Amino acid sequence: MFIDRETGEVEQIKVPWPANTTAKQKHTGPGIATAPNGSIWMVQLETMGSMVSIDPETHTPVLYEIFPPAWARGIRFIHLSFSAASVPEHYNRIYVIVSTLLQDESSDALFILNMCPGWKECRGIRIIPLPSQQSACHRITYCDIEDGDDDCDDGSVFITELSKSKVLQIKMNADVVMTKLDEHVSTDEEGFVHRKYVMTDEIEFGQDGSVVEDCYDDSCN
């Protein structure tokens, strides 16, 4: 639901869902947040690894589906946060948590997604299982942290562990080892764009000379 603060008008925005999603599963879940470019992102709690972005101007939604490795099956995204690239050689990033809060057979883990400059394409992924499993991780936020080392990649992700009443800190930097993703873009019968991503066997760093240069141009298909 979108509320225009100037006019007071209310609009319900229909969102796309993965194929074969049942009516009972169509819940967005608690996770909704705004990226630095103004786009709105939400996770779809009852589905496997899907989220939706909504353009801030056109209100057009796009479905993103992430297909993880076998060990991460059963995951459901629950909340997300963002960091914008501080220099052109770095990636924008989305940080998503999956949780055992509502599904015991899931994992508590952090998904890091490298995004293109326009926040449209996923370029790489890193999955980090949290050290405290069955912790029902619940909320996540990214914070810039200045530590005096003159790097442009300071920052940490903070994750609340609901069942343990603890806060977990994971320090981030630009040269995290990432796995490249294969992308398949299609349009469903209702006209919604679907972006599907499958992990490959190729490894890259978030920042070094071996990264393909076109990851850093201004285009996003």
How would you describe the overall organization of this protein?
By secondary structure, this protein is mostly beta strands. The protein has one domain. The chain has strands at 2-3, 10-11, 32-34, 40-43, 50-54, 61-67, 77-83, 92-98, 109-115, 122-129, 137-143, 156-161, 166-171, 177-187, 193-205. The strands form 3 sheets. A 10-stranded mixed beta sheet has the order 3-4-5-6-15-14-10-9-8-7, with no helix packed on it. Strands 11-12-13 form a 3-stranded antiparallel beta sheet, with no helix packed on it.
The number of strands is 15
> Rough shape?
globular
Percent of residues in beta strands? 35-45%
Radius of gyration: 17 Å
Order the strands across the largest sheet as they lie in space.
3-4-5-6-15-14-10-9-8-7
Main beta sheet: 10 strands, mixed
**End-to-end distance, in Å?**
27 Å
The class by helix and strand makeup works out as mainly beta
H/E topology pattern:
EEEEEEEEEEEEEEE
Number of domains: 1
Helix content: under 10%
Q: What's the overall average pLDDT, rounded?
A: 83
- Count of DSSP helices? 0
Low-confidence stretches: 208-218
Element layout with pairings:
Layout: E1 2-3, E2 10-11, E3 32-34, E4 40-43, E5 50-54, E6 61-67, E7 77-83, E8 92-98, E9 109-115, E10 122-129, E11 137-143, E12 156-161, E13 166-171, E14 177-187, E15 193-205
Parallel strand pairs: 6-15
Antiparallel strand pairs: 1-2, 3-4, 4-5, 5-6, 7-8, 8-9, 9-10, 10-14, 11-12, 12-13, 14-15
